[in-house]
Amino acid sequence: MIVSNPVPLDISYVPQKLFFRDDKIAAIRSSVLAPSSSGISNNIIIHGDSGTGKTSTVKFLMRDSKSIIYENALSFKNVKALLEHVLSRLGKPVSYRGLSFPDIFSTLNSVISFRGNTVLVIDEATNLLKSDTDGLYNLFRASEIYGTSLSTILISMENPFSYMDRKYGTVVELKFNKYSGSEIYRIISERAALSLEDGAYTDSILKYISEISAPVGSARFAIELLQKAAYMAEYRLSDSIENDDVRSAVSLINPYITESKLSLLDRRELLVLLSICSLLSDKLSVDVHTVENQVKLTGESYSIDIKKAEMYRIIRKLESMDIVSSTIQGRGNRSGVSKHVSINDVPVSILSIKIRDIIARL
Ligand SMILES: Nc1ncnc2c1ncn2[C@@H]1O[C@H](COP(=O)(O)OP(=O)(O)OP(=O)(O)O)[C@@H](O)[C@H]1O
Ligand SMILES: [Mg+2]
Fold first, then answer.
1. What angle do CA 114, 124, 51 make, to 5 degrees?
2. Hey, whose CA ends up nearest to atom 26 of ligand 1?
3. Residue 191 and residue 31: Cα distance in Å, rounded?
4. How far is Cα 182 from Cα 240, in angstroms, rounded to an integer?
5. Atom of ligand 1 at shortest range from CA of 12
6. What is the distance in A from the centroid of ligand 2 to the CA of 283?
7. Which residues lie closer than 8 Å to 273 by C-beta, 6 or more apart?
8. CA 211 to ligand 1 centroid distance, Å
9. What is the DSSP-derived secondary structure letter of residue 80?
10. d(CA 114, CA 13)
11. Is the pLDDT score of 89 beyond 90?
């Protein structure tokens, strides 16, 4: 068994500890939550790429702040519909659709006078920010126009400050940056410890997942990889997660690969790719000198002879097609650096089968 507790691998799980976001938590507390509790309404827009912890940070704050109401904009066609829903959640169901903003806010005022100052979080608000300027105007200026003690936290993947109208008044900007590889490693180490059997994973598997996720900078992507790789290993009835489980997970999330790309390669190119695959079954990357030897060996069984220059040309082509990636690494002695190639987004075991198949048909 690999997974002992599936909950922390679920994408909606809000962890007890949020790493690397103390400054954001403090910024939201000081710019919105603290002023709100003393009667001052402020508005803030949180933006940043997917998986940078925007939703979990506000959910984390909701644990000890009862004044926050959370809504997802995707369920509503505009601000008015969203506010009508908020009213009904607060015990004031709207009897007919199409209330005016003054009606909505005066009803809200009567609820808030009992409930106390309220902070409304609107998640996934990218489209709302673009499409409902009138609604946002009313929402952001509700305290001036209608005397409503309401602060708003909007969450968006895109940065709206480049196109947003000045008429909204002062809106605080809070940007969530992408996570680095080592930050992602910290986050998934915690999740792995909470959800997986002790011997089911190694540090190098977690490092591998972090490395693949680093260019995206997304904790969401990394946790999804960990989850899918874990179930992949469980499905194989294995006791532990292997590199190929991670590659399978990537290919599940990113299923753009192979058949069509492989069909663009000729026999000689396929043979170089097959050689790389066979070297990667127990390694994450391999240097090109090793590939050169393997190409000779594999070539013999297919009676294909590929010289060094041609092999380099083929590897460059495979890189340009995003089938393999490469890094330059030191060799650990005086002989300088060498190029290492890797395949990260498809299991090499499956790729090898496909390639052998195609070569046999050519
Ligand atoms: N700093 C962190 N510490 C621990 N876990 C984190 C952290 N940041 C994100 N996560 C986890 O990563 C996953 C994705 O985070 P979250 O949903 O908050 O991202 P998001 O910025 O809202 O992404 P999206 O824009 O796609 O909605 C969640 O499971 C969350 O618990
Ligand atoms: Mg989110």
1. 120
2. 50
3. 30
4. 23
5. 29
6. 35
7. 265, 318, 323, 324, 351, 355
8. 17
9. H
10. 32
11. yes
Domain extents in the chain:
7-12+180-253, 22-176, 259-361
Which residue type occupies 153? I
Point out the ligand 1 atom lying closest to the alpha carbon of residue 187: 4
Model confidence pTM above 0.90: no
Q: Over the Cα atoms of the chain, what is R_g?
A: 27
Torsion of CA 83, 89, 91, 94, to 10 degrees: 40
Q: How far is the C-alpha of 198 from the C-alpha of 253, rounded, in Å?
A: 26
Residues 179 and 257: their CA atoms lie apart, in Å, by 26
CATH number of 22-176: 3.40.50.300
Residue nearest to atom 16 of ligand 1 (CA): 53
Query: Which atom of ligand 1 sits closest to the CA of residue 59?
Result: 18
Q: What is the pLDDT of residue 360?
A: 83
The CATH-assigned architecture of domain 7-12+180-253 is Orthogonal Bundle (1.10)
Average pLDDT, the chain: 92
Give the three-state DSSP class for 130. Answer: helix
Ligand 1, pocket residues at CB < 6 Å? 11, 13-15, 18-21, 48, 50-56, 157, 187, 219-220, 223
pLDDT value at position 263?
Answer: 78
Instruction: Please state, in angstroms and rounded to a whole number, the distance separating the CA atoms of residues 54 and 155.
Output: 7
Whether 334 shows a pLDDT value over 80: the answer reads no
Closest CA to ligand 1's atom 8: 53
Termini Cα distance of the chain: 42
Distance CA 219, CA 213 (A): 8
Q: List the one residue out of 274, 228, 273 whose CA is nearest residue 247.
A: 228
pLDDT confidence bin for 5, thresholds 50/70/90: very high
CATH architecture, domain defined by 259-361: Orthogonal Bundle (1.10)
DSSP for 1-27 reads: --BS--GGGSTT---SS-TT-HHHHHH
**Nearest ligand 1 atom to alpha carbon 20:** 1
